[in-house]
Specification:
0% strand; mainly alpha; 77% helix
């Protein structure tokens, strides 16, 4: 054990596991439901970016409220993990946790800076949310080190690989096409229609990116369970040793 900064959340082990589940199920369901509503509605084209589902009507509320609730859960989750899990490199784990809180905050902001009315803040917060999430999961690997659960480390590695590849492909595919023409005086819809050949690759890559990040969030559940079990075993051994003296 080592001293942590700030105050830990008043959560029991079971509360922590529930928060772990909510941190990835809420945004995952939000993306799936909003995507299906947009797909069976009147999409601009197929495939489309996840942010295009933040469109007027019911899907707008699903997207905005779902990501807001999911982002709040993720912020609490990142702080709970920081105070609950033992790390091999505490300083790096603190930095990773702060990045996790920051990326989760930007996931909330993305839900309210929709691409139709706030394109520049939307792009900025989306990059912070995606890039921060990838960096958080990357730093968690060396930060937790050998103290991490084997299942959690394996799932985190898979998720990080998916998220990183998705992020790189998304940016490269879309920017290559978007930079090939002059977008001045175009509406957002006109711009996306013109860049659809890039969206055809970038949009599926974005879904892979999000799926990878959700796997990373789900992976920490293994660490919570393992370290709780180890803590109970230590307490049992201490109690046994004290009773025999």
């Amino acid at each position: 054990m080592y001293p942590r900064y700030g105050r830990r959340l008043p959560l029991s082990h079971q509360n922590g596991l529930l928060l772990a589940r909510l941190s990835w199920t809420v945004p995952s369901l939000t993306v799936v439901v909003a995507t299906l509503m947009h797909l069976f509605g009147d999409p601009r084209d197929v495939p489309f970016f996840i942010s295009e589902t933040d469109y007027q009507g019911l899907q707008d509320h699903v997207f905005s409220w779902g990501l807001t609730i999911g982002g709040l859960c993720q912020m609490m989750y990142a702080w709970h993990l920081y105070h609950t899990l033992d790390a091999q490199r505490p300083g790096l784990w603190f930095i990773a946790s702060l990045i996790g809180v920051f990326s989760s905050l930007n996931a909330i902001l993305v839900a309210h800076y929709d691409m139709y009315n706030y394109i520049d803040p939307h792009i900025l917060t989306a990059m912070f949310a995606f890039g921060g999430g990838v960096l958080w999961s990357m730093l968690a690997l060396p930060a937790l080190g050998t103290l991490a659960a084997a299942g959690g480390r394996q799932l985190r590695t898979i998720g990080f690989t998916m998220a990183s590849l998705g992020f790189i492909v998304m940016i490269a595919a879309f920017q290559t096409v978007a930079n090939s023409f002059d977008s001045k005086r175009m509406t957002l819809e006109e711009f996306l229609n013109r860049a659809q050949s890039g969206v055809d690759i970038a949009a599926p890559a974005e879904y892979v990116l999000v799926a990878g990040l959700m796997l990373c969030l789900a992976s920490f559940r293994y660490d919570l369970i393992q370290q709780h079990s180890e803590s109970k075993q230590r307490d049992t051994k201490t109690s046994t040793a004290e009773s025999t003296t």
